[in-house]
Amino acid sequence: MIRLLTNLYDLAGALCILTAIAFKTRFNFSTPYWTWRLHTAFPDAKIPGGKAGFLRFALEYARWAFQIRRLR
Predict the structure, then answer these.
(1) Spatial distance between the Cα atoms of 70 and 1, rounded to a whole number of angstroms
(2) For the chain, domain boundaries
(3) Which of 25, 39, 66, 68 could connect to 13 by a Cys-Cys bridge, CB 3.0–4.6 Å?
(4) Residue 72's pLDDT is what?
(5) Closest C-alpha among 26, 24, 13, 5 to residue 60
(6) Model confidence pLDDT, tens digit, residues 22-58
C-alpha cells in the first residue's frame, strides 16, 4: 500500500515538473535546446515505441527530476 502511494506521489510530482517545463518554455519544444536534448537522449533519432515511448521516457525523466529535487 505504501509503495502504491509513493508511486502516485512520484507521478503527481513528475506531472508538475512536466507542466513547469512546458510553461517555462512557453510550450515551444522546437527550440535549439530541446532539439539538442532529444538528440542526446536518442542519438540515432529513433525513439523506441514511437509517441507512446517518447511519453514514457519524458515521464521517466520528470520522475527522476522530481526525486532529485526531493533528494531521495
Answers:
(1) 21
(2) 2-70
(3) 66
(4) 61
(5) 13
(6) 898 888 888 887 888 888 877 777 778 888 888 888 8
String of DSSP letters for 6-70 = HHHHHHHHHHHHHHHHHHHTTT-TTSHHHHHHHHHHSTTS--TTHHHHHHHHHHHHHHHHHHHHH
Residue type, 65: A
Q: What gap in Å lies between CA 31 and CA 60, rounded to an integer?
A: 21
What are the angstrom distances between the C-alpha of 58 and each of 1, 2, 18? 26, 25, 8
Per the listing, cell 532529485 goes with: 68
Pick the more confident residue, 43 or 13.
13
CA separation for the pair 60, 10 (Å, rounded): 10
